[in-house]
UniProtKB/TrEMBL annotation:
Keywords: Oxidoreductase. The keyword Oxidoreductase applies. One of its GO terms (molecular function) is oxidoreductase activity. This is Heme chaperone HemW. PANTHER family: COPROPORPHYRINIGEN III OXIDASE (PTHR13932), RADICAL S-ADENOSYL METHIONINE DOMAIN-CONTAINING PROTEIN 1, MITOCHONDRIAL (PTHR13932:SF5). GO terms for biological process: porphyrin-containing compound biosynthetic process. GO terms for cellular component: cytoplasm. It comes from the Bacteria. It comes from Streptomyces iranensis.
């Protein structure tokens, strides 16, 4: 089914919704609530722990994550010192009965850290926060250049169960076009080292919609990835966002009046590549978990089944990390511009431990916002959502709370008509349009806050 047969005004690529609300909806918390009070009444038996490393060897042209290029001498040590101080303050606020069901190191590029620094990062998670990395799933992000044998040995030895490698393309010219300078030979060597390290789950990230990418070159990258039999594959559409390398490049073209946020021809090309990639992976036996995620047949369980992102809390350490309670989502300040990011990192490493005992930037979650988040986080997964689970939590039915949105999705063919009674599940085209469906569930207040945010 082509988008034009559904609604020609729908922009299929509006925003990748991986968390709700987005950080651009956060604001300074004047009251600076104490973490001890925020977490006092929260369930703390299945928390997720996230440690953010805001360093990369190079910043890709599409990247708007909170990260800086390189680190002057002493900064990584100072950052780990600050992480340790923050861990102490947060652990005290959580109390001794807090239990972690999952852990992740992200960024940035966690493997930017050298082997000894990765050992210290694991110590902060285990000794500082009380997470048993050998007993819970531990996911770590890496780049080909930093996936060295000594770093991988540390991660494998400390219990890493999943290693996610940002490849994006196995075609060197496409990697350069996305401002990700790398050679396929180096990527293949990194994949070999990861397999030798014995980390149970390998994930490979690929991007479609790169300038110059064709159906043939996209399939070439898919087949190159499949040759490694990864347990997971993520297929991401390319976005050109403000203040990123590609965004600045487009802004420097005075003759171009192209709006990368709304280009029907590019949208159609990305949809074609997405469908081709999806069908290719399904034909190889992969299971579609979401618009982006595909899991191999027989892949080991992640081990994090007792953590539910809709209801269980998240504890984030490091600038760039979010934390979630049922009442408040909070983090540090957010930026995309490199100068602003450097300033936020420098401020973070200079803070005393007492500064980490309070929340500074965030957004309070009203009952309506909690409902929106639960529906959004659930329905964007291929398995969908049982209305009974929603009713058990909120005492209402999603069809009562979101009648207009669900009617609109149904009218566009985005909801699966063959789903079991009382079950909301996206159709294949609904999954394909996840980046349009997700933003339509944003509240007017969150939309207004995001629009008013001074991106820097």
């Amino acid at each position: 089914m082509n988008i034009s047969t559904l609604d020609s005004t729908v922009r299929p690529y509006q925003s990748y919704v991986y968390a709700y609300p987005h950080k651009t909806a956060y604001r300074p918390l004047v009251e600076r609530p104490a973490l001890r009070e925020l977490w006092a009444a929260e369930p703390r038996d299945a928390l997720s722990l996230y440690l953010h490393i805001p360093f990369c060897e190079v910043r890709c042209g599409f990247c708007n994550l909170f990260t800086r290029i390189g680190a002057p001498e002493g900064l990584v040590t100072a950052y780990l010192d600050a992480l340790e101080r923050q861990a102490g303050a947060v652990r005290e606020a959580l109390g001794a009965d807090a239990r972690f069901a999952a852990a992740a190191f992200g960024g940035g590029t966690p493997t930017f850290l050298e082997a000894a620094e990765l050992e210290r990062l694991c110590d902060i998670a285990e000794k500082g926060m009380g997470a048993d990395l050998g007993a819970v799933p531990l996911s770590v992000e890496a780049s080909p250049a930093t996936a060295t044998a000594d770093r991988l040995a540390v991660l494998a030895g400390r219990g890493a169960t999943r290693l996610s490698l940002g490849v994006q393309s196995f075609v060197d010219a496409e990697a350069r076009s996305a401002v990700r300078p790398q050679r396929r030979a180096d990527v293949e060597a990194a994949l070999g080292r990861i397999r030798e390290a014995g980390i149970p789950v390998l994930n490979i990230d690929l991007i479609y919609g790169i300038d110059g990418q064709t159906a043939d070159s996209w399939r070439h990258s898919l087949d190159a990835a499949l040759a490694w039999r990864p347990e997971e594959l993520y297929l991401y559409p390319l976005y050109v966002r403000p203040l990123t390398g590609l965004g600045r490049k487009e802004a420097r073209e005075p003759e171009a009046e192209w709006d990368p946020a709304w280009d029907p021809e590019w949208d159609e090309r990305r949809l074609r590549l997405y469908r081709a990639g999806r069908d290719h992976l399904l034909a190889h036996g992969y299971e579609q978990v979401s618009m982006r995620m595909f899991r191999a047949p027989g892949a080991p369980a992640t081990g994090g089944e007792d953590h539910a992102c809709q209801t269980d809390g998240m504890v984030g350490l490091g600038c760039g990390a979010r934390s979630y309670t049922s009442a408040l989502h909070y983090s540090f300040d957010y930026a995309v511009d490199m100068r602003e990011i450097r300033g936020i990192v420098d401020d973070y490493v200079s803070r005393p431990a007492a500064d980490f005992a309070r929340a500074e930037h965030g957004r309070w979650m009203t009952g309506d916002e909690a409902r929106r988040r639960h529906l959004l986080q659930s329905v964007l997964q291929a398995e969908g959502m049982a209305a009974a689970e929603y009713r058990a939590r909120f005492g209402t039915d999603p069809a009562e709370d979101f009648p207009a949105e669900l009617a609109r999705f149904r009218g566009r063919g985005w909801l699966d008509p063959d789903a079991a009674p009382g079950h909301l599940r996206l159709s294949p085209e609904g999954l394909a349009h996840s980046d349009a469906l997700g933003p339509e569930l944003f509240s007017p207040a969150v939309r207004a806050a995001m629009a008013a945010y001074d991106l820097k």
